[in-house]
Amino acid sequence: MSELQIKEEIEVLDEQLKIQSFGIKLKEEIEIYEEPIAFTGGIYLVKYEKMVDIDHQVTSIEEKPYQCRQCDKAFSRNRDRIKHKRTHTGEKPYQCPQCDKAFKQMFNLIEHQRTHTGEKPYQCSHCNQAFAQKNSLKNHMRTHTGEKPYQCGQCDKAFSQNSTFKTHQRTHTGEKPYQCGQCHKAFSRNSSLTTHQKTHQRTQTGEKPYQCSQCDKTFSQKNNIIEHQRTHSGEKPYQCSLCDRSFSQNTSLKNHQRTHTGEKPYQCGQCHKAFSRNSSLTTHQKTHQRTQTGEKPYQCSQCNKAFSDKINLIKHQRTHSGEKPYQCSQCDRAFALNYNLKDHQRTHTGEKPYKCSQCDKAFSQNSNLIRHQKTHTG
């Protein structure tokens, strides 16, 4: 490795230090310090300047005369203030001689250089594993001790690593700091963003590296082949906590759970109609486009009728087939359309959600309300 020369030049305050709380006027001078730092290629001297008070050296931790001009933080040593200042300026004075990376702190450069040398000075006392960074060793040691010092304040979960703990907290806050530069989709984990970005690359190239071992289908993403394989195995690992239904995909479970909660998070920007599924919103938005163009791409094979969306064609085809898939759980009646079943079920429950705004009458069906309102208008 070529000789590494690191020079740390620390600026000093351009005005004389005054500490009114101590009532002491300090006499100052600047001394040059040399600190030996060990690297793989040898030992090098790091030079820095330090302001020294002759009459009263700051020794107490409570004494913090060096204050940051950009925030409220104060420090007992000027060089600590200088290091902190880089969090505001973004300055990275320590550059690796073997690559383009630069760092704010010298110890970060030292740790980085081990990625070039392969040096791992921190060895586990319980096993043979060694690490380039001290923090990596600390995190590893917890696999032996079982220690989980990072506890979530919103649930009972605890974690051995701070990074895992922070990622978990986003499940409570909903924070998604990692955003795709191409489609602006956001993720709570950096690894999820990296996986997602590959889908853009594979869309351009047409690459589908994941092939099903039981059929010829191929996929661009690993999670898609995992979900597909459940169509062969019949596995349904995602179970609803409110009923006995289970699903092969987590997204299917989330969509189903909205049938219990009534949540409809996907809203149309044109008519403000809301949907429980994103796919339903997408289908609905096409009806607006086709209303403008007059397009009706879905044609009945048994008659000449055509429809602007697929669901209306399916409903229409039941008039030919006589199919009635929506059955009442309280009697033998069945219906071709879901909303007809809902109207019928109110004859059992007695529910009357359609209320007249001009009198106290209420109705189980909207059509009955409309008919009644005409008695007010004449």
UniProtKB/TrEMBL annotation:
PROSITE patterns: ZINC_FINGER_C2H2_1, ZINC_FINGER_C2H2_2. Pfam families: zf-C2H2, zf-H2C2_2. GO terms for cellular component: cytoplasm; nucleus. GO terms for biological process: regulation of DNA-templated transcription. SUPFAM superfamilies: beta-beta-alpha zinc fingers. The keyword Disulfide bond does not apply. The keyword Zinc-finger applies. Residues 66-93, 94-121, 122-149, 150-177, 178-209, 210-237, 238-265, 266-297, 298-325, 326-353, 354-378 form the C2H2-type domain. It is found in: Nucleus. GO terms for molecular function: DNA binding; zinc ion binding. It comes from the Eukaryota. Keywords: DNA-binding, Metal-binding, Nucleus, Phosphoprotein, Repeat, Transcription, Transcription regulation, Zinc, Zinc-finger. Belongs to the krueppel C2H2-type zinc-finger protein family. PANTHER family: GASTRULA ZINC FINGER PROTEIN XLCGF49.1-LIKE-RELATED, ZINC FINGER PROTEIN 200. This is C2H2-type domain-containing protein. It comes from Meganyctiphanes norvegica (Northern krill). The lineage of its organism: Eukaryota, Metazoa, Ecdysozoa, Arthropoda, Crustacea.
